[in-house]
Amino acid sequence: MYSPADMTLWQGRVDQDLEGDARRWHQCVTALSPGAGTPGIALLGVCCDCGVTRNLGRAGARNGPDAVRKALAGQAWHLQLPCYDAGNLFCPDDALEALQEEEADRVAQLLELGHFPLLLGGGHEIAWGGYLGLDRFQERRGESREIGIVNFDAHFDLRQAPAANSGTPFLQMAQECRQRQAPFRYFCLGVSEVANSRVLFRRAGALGAQWLLDEQLAPWDLEGAKQRLREFLAVCGALYLSIDLDVLPAAVAPGVSAPAARGVSLEVVEHLLGFIRSVAGSKLRLAVIAECNPDFDSDGRTARVAARLCHLLAR
Q1: Quick one: which of 59, 72, 73, 91 has its CA closest to 255?
Q2: Homologous superfamily of domain range 2-314
Q3: How confident is the model at residue 18 (pLDDT cuts 50, 70, 90)?
């Protein structure tokens, strides 16, 4: 279920420039050694899309993590922290629940070592395992378990289903919060009205979730969104950030399970990510980039967008 880092993925051009640093990611990323290394960014791939197929979506996202790594490899290096490849988790025989438990353990271990886990998917079912890992880490440290969840997504992912899938992770989080009588703090950015049924909007409201529609996130009118985010982040003990690439327009991110007819522009997503990072500061403990599907990714556009978002989150 786990494979150590495959460093052969980290290849690219090598520039010779006597006037300064010309390194690229493939020259700087190293394999994570257990218990060793200066705290930094830890890339963990979750190679799973059985939750997508359970949700009747397009399979192929299991190959997303390595596609993102290949796109990252050639990017210019501008990071201050070290970056480690923490390997991949796999989901054999549709064993999603077991994978999510293993993912939670890995995430908690990375946090214990002082790293910032950056999870690469994989279908959005990986969101649940990441959340569990953060929650367990917070509990072990005796820190606030009132975790704020910000999700860039065209979908609420609050579906009810007989088994966990890519559409259920945030409902699973809500149910876990209810079991321990904790507030469910969830803010979904970029919700598509035509991609979510009335019952999902009602459920989101009943759970106390907050959201902004894709049509409410225009580049020229973001002050209201930033104020609501500022108020949301102020009451969170820790922050969990998830990006489902299907929040972006299909022309920008074609390689996803459910391409968006409209979506939220990459410029807006980047701007709000920067704002969230500046306001949240050290509260931001974990980030997930999900739904990269190379099987449908024309010219590798989605993988390159995911790599750019990794850079913005890591710098």
Answers
A1: 59
A2: Ureohydrolase domain (3.40.800.10)
A3: confident
